[in-house]
Amino acid sequence: MAHAEAAAAPRGGARATRAFSPFEWIVALRYLRARRAKSFVSVIAGFSFAGIMLGVATLIVVMSVMNGFRQELLNKIVGINGHVFVQATDTPFTDYDAVAKRLEAVPGVKLVIPMIEGAAGVSSPFNQSGALVRGIAGPNLRRLPGIEGHVVQGTLDDFDKSGGVAIGQRLAESLGLSLGDQVSVLTAKGAQTPFGVAPRIKSYPVVAIFQIGMSEFDSSFVYMPMAEAQSYFNKDGEASVIEVFVDDPDHMDAVRLRLDRAIERPAVMTDWRQRNKTFFDALNVERNVMFIILTLIVLVAALNIISGLIMLVKDKSSDIAILRTMGASRGSILRIFLIAGASIGVSGTFAGLALGVLVASNIERIRTALNSLMHADLFPSELYFLSHLPSVIEPGDVLAVTGMALALSLLATVYPSWRAANLDPVEALRYE
């Protein structure tokens, strides 16, 4: 027994190999290559590589699409509705011009637009629908971020004098209208008569058709000149709301304080965060849950690395014993299997990184190709509010996904490597 222990000990004159030396890399990578007789370990390594690659790629694509959803929806919702909304209390909003001028002078304010708003029914000889009618001055309509550059038919020149309306493209398609056609606008709050309030209906020519890119707005918004809207909704000389656009909508608190001081009259002020809080909170929750769920894909692939390395240690137990008797230290054996496992994780992570960035950068082209191939609509705008599939690659998210995958992959190699380093050479060679 003493003779066997002496044989198992490293030679006294042998020097320990340098950490992560070429010898350790050569042995580790050789263990990962399959031989015809024993290829099962390499098959598991291949599945582990594919699992980590697909997990990382899927995470990057999903996070990018979620970021794109948030940015697009924020731009569309805020771009057409403003960042801050000022509504009068106690007295009618007849001094809206003076209030608008004071608000425009506030630092950080980009645009101030007084409006008339009212719900109405719109109809044509072919169909009818509900709509939100907005009265706005022509120069302000041309400056409105959601409308500027999005007019697909007609023009907004001389909008105040045109006597017509601008409608969304989906609403025009739903009503079967084109440029120059008449659209009837109906509201229940019409003229006051001895018998009560009579409904009011009036026809207007369509002078412009716009496409915001968000189906909910394109199918429900109607813009008419401010003076006409005041007359139509019985609000002569009044405004319903003043919408304020600011330079930095993500930092509203400081701007709100300055706006509140500039109003100088009884009013209620809300901002986009309050009006859309539930919607954007739901998006954030969904984004976080998707990250946790898809992380499980990477975790399962990391567990495959553990099982594959444990099988590799069992398969190579005699080789490990021989290396130990030839002078390899426990640290050297530990590093060999660390390199073998980390090679799978690191290569899979960076392959997934490249694949994920490539897919996320071309997600709309891929969607269009799949739609043509499958003759189906994989992203119906009626359900998702957007006319295209958005994707925004955030470097912080990519780094977080990559770091998480690398950490899980490296942690998965610790136990099998420790087990290989503590293998008893005598026991391993006893039955060889």
TrEMBL record:
Swiss-Prot/TrEMBL keywords: Cell membrane, Lipoprotein, Membrane, Transmembrane, Transmembrane helix, Transport
Coiled-coil blocks: none
Subcellular location: Cell membrane
GO cellular component, one term: plasma membrane protein complex
InterPro entries named among the record's database cross-references: ABC3_permease_C, Lipoprotein-release_system, LolCE_TM, MacB_PCD
ABC3 transporter permease C-terminal domain sequence ranges: 291-425
Gene Ontology biological process terms in this record: lipoprotein localization to outer membrane; lipoprotein transport
Residues passing through the membrane, by range: 40-66, 289-313, 334-360, 398-415
UniProt KW Disulfide bond keyword: no
Membrane topology: Multi-pass membrane protein
Domain MacB-like periplasmic core: 49-260
Family affiliation: Belongs to the ABC-4 integral membrane protein family. LolC/E subfamily.
Protein name: Lipoprotein-releasing ABC transporter permease subunit
Organism of derivation: Lichenibacterium ramalinae
